[in-house]
Amino acid sequence: MSVLSQSHFHDEAKAFEYLESVIWADGVTCPHCGVVGGRVYDLSGVRGSKSVKNPEGAIRYGLKKCGECRKQFTVKVGTVFEHARMPLYKMLQAVHLIVSSKKGISAHQLSRVLEVQYKSAWFLAHRIREAMRSGDLAPVGGNGGIVEVDETFIGKLKGVEKKRAFHHKMKVLALVDRETGKARTMVIDDVKAETLMPIVLENVARETRIMTDEHSGYRSIKDHFAGHGTTSHGKGQYVDLADRTIHSNTVEGYFSIFKRGMKGVYQHCGEQHLHRYLAEFEFRYNNRVALGVNDRQRAVEGLKGIVDKRLTYARPDCA
Ligand SMILES: [Zn+2]
Predict the structure, then answer these.
(1) Which residue range is the domain that position 262 belongs to?
(2) How far is the CA of 18 from the centre of ligand 1 (A)?
(3) Which terminus of the chain has fewer Cβ atoms in its 10 Å neighbourhood, N or C?
């Protein structure tokens, strides 16, 4: 039985029940007054006002009324799904497809599978990516652990643009904690020490050994952290033979997965959207099977992120 045959992917009432079980695991929360587990009246299934299109009034799924503040709401209020004009069961399908596909799924594919317009699929995919941003700010590493740090360029340029490629390509920094196997990534303006070092200082615990390549932007790492190991990729050195813990192969591996995905699925991504693609890849990487997370748990984790994250600006100009 395919996962997508589950009822909440096809039945709107079941879709609401499913999302409620994930979002309100600790009790129904009223988005208006904030009461958790208070008196709530279930009005789901009642019909809304009559219209020409819906002479009997549209069924209002998942409708609740707060017994404290008397206001109505559904589980979608305050989430990235709130203003999307699409059945919830289709959006849950989209979340499942995005979190379970190894390399991601393009808006074109999504629009075909969900049978919605390209534009709607594009907006939905970005809403979901936004939900996948971790917002985790605690430093990584610590306890004598090892964090690999590396930067890369994303995007392909042609002809004249190629000469200025260094300045025009999109730049990404990644930190991978070898202990937890998790990554943290961000878009950066350039690869100067003034840009890189504050990010490393902010995101990595001091009692950590850091591994990088020989890029000069990382030179002062040794002054702030428990250790700094470097390999010289320019000289073809990928692991220090005297100390085999010195390498940045894990973070290199991360970038190669990301680049393969960006190439295959998201060909012409604008810089303004790059952080959301990064979030999507980071999410899947940090919730991967090797870390003991299955498809179902990954979808639940992705859905938990939909609360309190709204997409303020988006334009369908890529993938
Ligand atoms: Zn209330």
Answers:
(1) 146-286
(2) 21
(3) N
In a domain, 31, yes or no: no
pLDDT at 83 over 90: no
Using CA atoms, how far apart are residues 242 and 14, in angstroms rounded to an integer? Answer: 59
The number of folded domains in the chain is: 1
Q: Which residue has the tokens 């399908």?
A: 93
pLDDT tens sequence across 165-201: 545 678 999 999 999 999 999 999 899 999 999 999 9
Residue 255 domain-assigned (yes or no): yes
Ligand 1 centre and the CA of 12: distance in Å? 24
Residue 39 inside a domain? The answer is no
CA 102/CA 148 separation, integer angstroms? 23
Ligand 1 centroid distance, CA of 138 (Å): 32
Q: What is the pLDDT of residues 130-178, one digit of tens each?
A: 888 876 778 899 888 999 999 998 875 555 455 555 456 789 999 999 9
Q: Is residue 185 part of a domain?
A: yes
Residue 30 Cα to ligand 1 middle (Å): 5
Lookup: tokens for 65 = 């009324």
Q: How far is the CA of 134 from the centre of ligand 1 (A)?
A: 28
Q: Are 50 and 57 in contact (CB under 8 A)?
A: yes
CATH of the domain at 174: 3.30.420.10
38 C-alpha to ligand 1 centroid (Å): 8
> What is the whole-number distance in angstroms between the Cα of residue 24 and the centre of ligand 1?
14
- Taking the C-alpha atoms of residue 169 and residue 21, their distance in angstroms, rounded to an integer, is 43
